UniProtKB/TrEMBL annotation:
CDD domains: S49_SppA_67K_type, S49_Sppa_N_C. SUPFAM superfamilies: ClpP/crotonase. Keywords: Hydrolase, Membrane, Protease, Serine protease, Transmembrane, Transmembrane helix. Belongs to the peptidase S49 family. This is Signal peptide peptidase SppA. It is found in: Membrane. The chain crosses the membrane at residues 32-50. Residues 142-296, 395-545 form the Peptidase S49 domain.
Length: 630
């Protein structure tokens, strides 16, 4: 009997079964390892939250308020960016949120184990006047509980000194200085430079004082611009000096007198600026950092292990600040930065993205009132109107809206405040600037120099009217000016409705002019002067919330990775743009022998003009004040 040959399918089947078994084993091992890792992370987090947590503070602990970075309303640096920058050996632009500083100071003021505070400002890199006054007021509240605040600095600029002046004692390094310079800076004007390049900037605007575009069409400020700048800066300066002199118990006018007599006074102390600061009673003593450490050890409690005084760092104490997780809340939406169309990330304002946050607050049943915290010089008129409309809908839905103006709430920043139950500004807020403009740069003279010519047969005069390589068609300019006029009328009409007055009266204080918060209050542009805390209290009262209401920050969802890291601590128009940037980029400016800081400033000014030119729209209606808090 013959034997049938073995089927060739059997070896293949055996191989498949073997491979399948191997793969199941690898997959099971992978899942087991990943599950163990996940379980370990969960156990670590649970231990941190419930088991271990922060150790209780011991009595006589000193809060070390070391302010590092720029003081902002909302940080624009997320965990992913920070990790990548560190991995590349780069420097992370540090930011410190105003709300965190206020929370730490107010919580520590009530903490029986915190006996004092040390304020260090050397690394404070920038802040607006309104934000500084908020922190200064929190320092005063801390001191009012009987707890001293000791300030020390290697040197103080005028922003840093505004905070230090509110300390119980102010100390300075023996080789340091207190540099109070005053407010207001010279601005660059580019008319002659642009003429030499062949670039023509066509500025269309409404508002006598709307001076944003003047640097590109003139060689100096207009009389109206000079008048407005002087009025604003003098008011801010008077507020600053009054604040510091009262905090330091100095005679009224002493700071100005010291500045006016500075050359003589410096000569009298042989150039020793630290000694001069002490003589003028701007500081209480001259000490090195180690001397401050020894002083705090004697006054408080020694930490033998750290060989210093018993202390808790700002970041560590911030993690201890309690947060209420349930109950009715006031929702806070931060509107910080320039206002642009579309979406923008944290620390900036997008017409679509910020509107979405307002809708989220409106649709959240736990949020009973909204506070819009503004720190913005404005931007797109269209995006501003989108945001204002969402606030209008929020009020119509029965939720109160209170606007809290920070450092700047001008032009578009004022536009978005016009649908609210109450507008509260700091005395040094920069606001107003109710005006509109458009800028249309053309490079027809540039291409003439290059021997380039343009020609075509469009079906209508409008078909190529926005071509930046041709002179501006007067008819096109007329169309744009008409649109700008209309938007200005919309601006003043909405402002009049919001302020319960007439467009004519708004026009009298509009015209693109900027005001301090105090000046705006006198002119009916804001309801009252007050702090961010006052805005929260007003919103809560309007919503009839209990005294223990929550505060919820309505912000864009961060990625799961960022959240995890934080949990564990971790066109044709382009032709003009290219023509301008190629001639006036930073490198070109640097070759003239200009100091780097001056070259950088010029590059920034002309870079903004390049960005405007590169817009995909034929023109953009802009509500921007070109202003910042000194």
């Amino acid at each position: 009997m013959s034997q049938s040959p073995q089927s060739p399918q059997k070896p293949r089947s055996f191989i498949r079964r073997g491979f399948a078994f191997f793969w199941r084993s690898v997959d099971a091992t992978r899942r087991t390892v990943l599950n163990l890792i996940f379980l370990a992370i969960v156990l670590i987090l649970l231990y941190a939250i419930f088991g271990g947590g922060a150790k209780p503070l011991q009595p006589k602990t000193t809060l070390v308020l070391d302010l590092k970075g720029q003081l902002v309303e909302q940080s624009s640096v997320n965990a992913t960016e920070a990790l990548l920058a560190n991995a590349r050996g780069g420097e992370v632009h540090k930011m410190i949120q105003l709300r965190d500083v206020l929370a730490v100071l107010d919580t520590a003021a009530k903490d029986p184990n915190v006996a004092s505070a040390v304020l260090l400002t050397d690394d404070l890199q920038g802040a607006g006047q309104a934000s500084l006054r908020e922190v200064a007021a929190a320092i005063d509240r801390f001191k009012a509980t009987g707890k001293p605040v000791i300030a020390w600095g290697a040197s103080y600029d005028q922003r840093q000194y505004l905070l230090a002046a509110h300390a119980s004692e102010v100390y300075l390094h023996p080789m340091g200085m207190v540099m109070i310079e005053g407010f207001g800076r010279y601005r660059n004007y580019y008319r002659d430079a642009l003429d030499k390049l062949g670039v023509t900037v066509n500025l269309l605007r409404v508002g006598t004082y709307k001076s944003f575009g003047e640097p590109y069409i003139a060689n100096g400020p207009s009389q109206a611009a000079s008048e407005a700048d002087s009025y604003l800066n003098n008011a801010l300066w008077a507020s600053y000096t009054d604040n510091v002199e009262k905090a330091r118990k100095l005679p009224q006018g002493q700071i100005m007198k010291t500045i006016n007599d500075l050359p003589t006074q410096v000569a009298a102390v042989n150039g020793d600026l630290a000694k001069l600061s002490l003589a003028e009673k701007l500081v209480d003593g001259l000490k090195t950092k180690d001397e401050i450490r020894q002083m705090m050890i004697k006054r408080g409690a020694a930490d033998a292990d750290a060989k210093s005084f018993r202390q808790v760092a700002f970041d560590e104490y911030l993690a201890r600040v309690p947060h209420k997780l349930t109950g009715d809340a006031v929702g806070v939406i931060v509107a910080q930065g320039e206002i642009s169309d579309g979406s923008a990330g944290p620390g900036s304002i997008g017409g679509d993205s910020t509107s979405k946050l307002i809708r989220m607050a409106r649709e959240d049943n736990n949020i009973k009132a909204v506070v819009l915290r503004i720190d913005s010089p404005g931007g797109s008129a269209f995006a501003s109107e989108l945001i204002r409309r969402e606030l209008e809908l929020t009020r119509a839905a029965g939720k109160p809206v209170v606007v809290s103006m920070g450092n700047v709430a001008a032009s578009g920043g004022y536009w978005i405040s016009m649908s609210s139950d109450e507008v509260i500004a700091e005395p040094t807020t920069i606001t107003g600037s109710i005006g509109v403009f458009a800028i249309l740069p053309t490079a027809d003279k540039v291409i003439d120099k290059l021997g380039i010519h343009t020609a075509g047969q469009p079906t209508t005069w409008l078909g190529d009217a926005g071509n930046p390589l041709r002179p501006l068609d007067p008819r096109f300019g007329q169309v744009i000016q008409g649109s700008i006029n209309h938007i200005y009328a919309e601006f003043t009409t909405k402002a009049a409705q919001a302020r319960k007055t007439t467009p004519e009266k708004i026009n009298e204080v509009a015209q693109g002019r900027v005001w301090t918060g105090a000046q705006a209050k006198d002119r009916g542009l804001v309801d009252r002067l007050g702090s961010y805390g006052d805005a929260l209290k007003s919103a809560a009262a309007r919503a009839k919330l209990p005294a223990d209401y929550r505060v919820v920050y309505v912000e864009r969802d961060i990625s799961k990775f960022d959240r995890f890291v934080e949990m564990i601590g971790g066109g044709t128009a382009q032709a003009v743009a290219q023509a301008v940037s190629a001639q006036l980029k930073l490198g070109a400016a640097a070759t003239t022998g200009l100091p780097p800081s001056a070259a950088t400033g010029i590059a920034q000014d002309l870079g903004w003009l390049t960005e405007i030119t590169a817009q995909h729209k034929p023109f953009t209606a802009i509500t921007h004040c070109l202003c910042e808090s000194p």
